[in-house]
Amino acid sequence: MRAHNPITWIPSAYFAMGLPFVAISLASVIMLADLGVDEASITFWTSLLILPYSIKPLWSPLLELYFTKKAFVLVCQAICGMCFGLLAFLLPIPDSFAWLIAVMAVITFSGATNDIATDGIYLTAIDKKTQAEYIGWQGAFYNLAKVLVNGGLVYLAGTLIRYFEATSPGNAATYAWMVIMSIIGGALLCLTAYHWFFLPTGSRNDDSPADFRQAMVSLYDVFKDFFTKRHIWLYILFIVCYRLTEGFAVKMVPLFLKAPVDAGGLGLSNEAIGLIYGTLGTGAFILGSILGGYYIARFGLKKVLFSLVCIFNIPFAIYFLFAQFQPDSLVVIASGLVLEYLCYGFGFVGLTLFMMQQVAPGKHPMAHYAFASGIMNLGFMLPGMVSGMIFQHVGYEMFFLIAVVMSIPAFILAATVPFTHSSESK
After folding, report:
1. 355 near 373, Cβ under 8 Å?
2. Alpha-carbon torsion 378, 382, 383, 385, what sign?
């Protein structure tokens, strides 16, 4: 088959990778709030649903045994597209919450498998020089999915709710989110059809297992080597604590922004949340990530790690101040959220590079980086599962104060964690 220029498939493939993850982990929080689901249920289930993205290394070797990487991508994208359509069908059905969660679970499992296969194509279908040239396109179009879903489509949902309130006031939110889920599903099905023609097949890795038994033996060896690394348990603790505050607070933030002022929130509309949190915030995150990369390259990770943890975690105090003073100025709120996202992007690259430079090096660098990423996501997921229940007992102001206190272990570990490998800029 004729090889296609990477520009014809890398942007679309990573955009398709981002759509289901952002829709389930972020936009669904606002959707469920619009549908009247309580905070504890929202935070628990939308956190638990991203579990497949944390444990995907467990079945990644099996994708080398059967079919092609392209086949897995096409099937998984098609499943995600049809499941979003099914969500739209289920939304107006009474007492369908359990079915909605079940369909979302299928989406996240398929989305995580699509991630494995897409990355596999990227690593095997193009050479290392081309990989380096297009690495920026990966991140840009993955984040474009975040802007579209958590920004544009959340904004559209708010507009549609106001439109449907004129004709179906009791079902306005349901009808609005039926449209949004249908748009996401339709986009994924269109991308599936596009990738049928333009996505490379992807070749087998040189060290791919020959059968199921070999795949399991290989996975065991990778696990054993990972958990016997020097300082690995301290590194795991640091990785978990780095994002502990974020994991605890992130699911509650859109609910806090949306909650009425008399309930302790800021009373923002879906349109305002989509514009500020989903669009401006994502832009600030990208800018912060770029600046953070230059900062680390200039001074070296070991020298700046503590400052990166400060920059990453301290801005969560913004939410505590917002909960305490409840500003009504959209400019003030937008400025605070953009600053938080800028700092979030700036500090997040520190954790990414720590995993690359201190955890991944060794016999299985790609697999060990995947394990470290999975552990990081678990540390992000678990506090999010209980955040809504804690909020229901303490309210927004005390909740965000607890979030700030939870960042203290990350500061202590950043100041003391040993470096096994050099982090100096070469």
Report:
1. yes
2. positive
Amino acid letter, 37:
V
What average pLDDT does the segment 231-246 reach? 92
Taking each continuous run of H as one helix and of E as one strand, the counts in the chain are: 20, 0
State residue 35's pLDDT score: 92
CB–CB of 390/265 below 8 Å? no
| Residue 178 exposed, middle or buried by CB count within 10 Å (0-12, 13-18, 19+) | buried
DSSP 6-61: GGGTHHHHHHHHHHHHHIIIIIHHHHHHHTT--HHHHHHHHHHTTHHHHHGGGTGG
Q: Which tokens hold the place of 406? A: 């939870």
Specify the pLDDT at position 264.
92
DSSP code, position 1: -
CA separation for the pair 364, 330 (Å, rounded): 49
Average pLDDT of every residue of the chain = 87
* pLDDT class of 120 with cuts at 50, 70, 90: confident
Helix (H, G, I), strand (E, B) or coil at 208: coil
Task: Measure Cα distances from 136 to 14, 277, 279 in Å.
Answer: 11, 23, 19
**How far is 389 from 384, CA to CA, in rounded Å?**
10
Cα–Cα distance for residue pair 266/329, rounded to 1 Å: 10
If you compute the radius of gyration of the chain from its CA atoms, what whole number of angstroms results?
A: 21
Q: Give DSSP secondary structure letters for 323-382.
A: HHH----HHHHHHHHHHHHHHHHHHHHHHHHHIIIIIS-SS-HHHHHHHHHHHHHHHHHH
Q: Mean pLDDT over residues 98-106, rounded?
A: 96
Domains present along the chain, CATH in parentheses: 1-208 (1.20.1250.20), 210-426 (1.20.1250.20)
Conformational region of residue 95, where left means phi above 0, alpha means psi within -120 to 50, and beta covers everything else? left
Is the model's pLDDT at 346 over the cut of 60? yes
Residue 30: which of 338, 243, 252 has the closest Cα?
Answer: 252
How is residue 278 annotated by DSSP? I
Q: What is the pTM of this model?
A: 0.82
Q: Which of 111-120, 182-191, 252-261 has the highest mean pLDDT?
A: 182-191
SS3 204: coil
First to last CA, the chain: 41
- Look at the alpha carbons of 251, 76, 375, 338 in this order and tell me if their dihedral is positive or negative: negative
Element (DSSP H or E) covering residue 66: none
